[in-house]
Amino acid sequence: MLEIGTGSGYQAAILSHLAAEVVSIERHAALAEEARARLAALGYTNVSILCADGTLGYARLAPYDAIIVTAAGPQIPVALLDQLAMGGRLLCPIGDRHVQRLIKVVRTEDGFRETPSIDCVFVPLVGEQGWPEHTA
Length: 136
Prior knowledge:
- It contains 3 helices and 7 strands.
- With about 140 residues, the chain is α/β, with parallel strands linked by helices.
- The chain has a 7-stranded mixed sheet with strand order 3-2-1-4-5-6-7.
- The chain is globular.
């Protein structure tokens, strides 16, 4: 499973009970290091925390059966769609800076099937395939 936006590591810890392996990407080095240390101290061994641009995913371990994005972008990053396994699911909030819609994407033989869900508000997804740093 790939998580974009580690933050404190809380959600990565929960995901570690649902998936055999969790890769979590955080763009802020200090947050990534704190979450890495916190999860290690708590005994989580199936979570890897990386400091990188989450909008680009982590192709080295792709494809992923599940990708969850915990920040909102103007569109779903193509890099994340490319890293989704056949039959895999991606959950991502998409919209403008003030309100987004949670979108579920499933990769099928015919492409990608998107299902919109509820309106929501998330922090901005900053990176090469998200919002620019200066608008965050």
